[in-house]
Amino acid sequence: MITGIQNYFERKYLAWLDRRLGSHDSVLLTQKRIFIFPSRIGLLFLMLISLMFLTAVNYQNNLLFSFSCLLVSIMVSAIAFTYRNLSGLKISAGKCVSVYENEFVNVDVKLESHKGGVKEGVYLGFDRNSDVQMDAISDEVIGKLRFKAMTRGWVNVPRFTLFSHYPLGLLRCWTWTKLEFDAVVYPTPVYMPFKRALVDEGDEVNEDQVDSLIKGQSADDFHGFKTYQPGDSLKHVAWRQYAKTSQLLTKEFSSYEGVSRWLDWNALDGVSVERRLQILCGWVLTSDENTDEYGLMVPGCTIELGQGSSHKLRCLRALALYGVDSNRGDKKPPPANKRGG
User: Fold this and answer.
1) Do residues 23 and 180 touch, judged by C-beta distance below 8 A?
2) Are residues 162 and 307 in the same domain?
3) Is residue 276 domain-shared with residue 143, that is, in the same domain?
4) Does residue 162 sit in the same domain as residue 265?
5) Is the link from the previous residue into 187 a cis peptide, with omega within 30 of 0?
6) pLDDT at 196
7) How many domains does the chain have?
8) Looking at the structure, do residues 10 and 58 belong to the same domain, yes or no?
């Protein structure tokens, strides 16, 4: 029962934080975003002041009165300095690499001191059990966070905390921040045999012809050379010509007219949405590994035939953001499939 009550108030607190602070690419810590409260030592310190003050009143001891006032002034000064240590700190989204579902994500958080001098004793983490102390922040410092990505779509970095007890440890000054990173979580790849069912004109194609096109042409299909372009398959580079002329060339092969290797959503009829995305992801990775030319067709998005790492990342990003707001947001209902899928 106690756990249920704690979870209830935690949800209410996080919902309040979402309304108050929101999610941004970068934030500047001001009075609205900074919270401050006595630490455990600070509470003991306040209890000591109260006890001394009551004793001074009871015994009319001027020395205890003076000492109590001194301790109160120290507490008030500590509030000002502790708040100043975080005020004016800019927090920005740094580097974040796209990953697959259920993999760990490493994100960089940039911390910059815009005013108030050097920031010291600052900790960064998702909670007190995972916090890391940062170096003194005078210009720009990079903080590292690591968490597990559970669902595809935009990388959704959990709300993290930045806090400090500087300078006396009597108070805890903190903020909660949620940043938006320009990285995505790809579907978990599922590897299964490719279904060859797409032809430009709708004609049936002989399986041997398709295999010949997919696995690579024979010597009889050699067409000529062309200047190497970034993204061309290294398997087709004419290394002998390069050794002779020092010019990087790529071999061109003739292909069967009307045959294309498309990774098609409709080739997986009867399969659930997430499972389709996982299988298509596996096909993309397999095609790229085999240096095949391939295109991707999903409802609402068609990526033309291509090769190379940039083409692969474009296809994977399309799969990751299927049914997700491209301007960052929650999942939308998948668009209607006009092609019967």
Assistant:
1) yes
2) no
3) no
4) no
5) no
6) 56
7) 2
8) yes
Same-domain status, 138 and 22: yes
Q: What is the distance between the alpha carbons of residues 278 and 258, in angstroms, rounded to a whole number?
A: 28
64-90 confidence digits (pLDDT tens) = 999 999 999 999 999 999 999 999 899
- Looking at the structure, do residues 24 and 59 belong to the same domain, yes or no? yes
* Secondary structure string (H, E, C) spanning the chain: CHHHHHHHHHHHHHHHHHHHHCCECEEECCHHHCEEEECHHHHHHHHHHHHHHHHHHHHCCHHHHHHHHHHHHHHHHHHHHHHHHHCCEEEEEEEECCEECCCEEEEEEEEEECCCCCECCEEEECCCCCCEECCCECCEEEEEEEEECCCCEECCCCCEEEEECCCCCCEEEEEEECECCCCEEECCCCCCCCCCCCECCCCCCCHHHHHHHHHCCCHHHEEEEEECCCCCCHHHECHHHHHHHCCCEEEEECCCCCECCEEEHHHHCCCCHHHHHHHHHHHHHHHHHCCCCEEEEECCEEEEEECCHHHHHHHHHHHHCCCECCCCCCECCCCCCCCCC
CB atoms within 10 A of CB 81: 13
Question: pTM of the full predicted structure?
Answer: 0.67
**Residue pointed to by tokens 């004109």:** 201
Q: Are residues 170 and 286 in the same domain?
A: no
**Identity (one letter) of the amino acid at 299?**
P
Q: List the domain range (segments joined by +) for residue 306.
A: 207-217+255-320
| Average pLDDT taken over every residue of the chain | 79
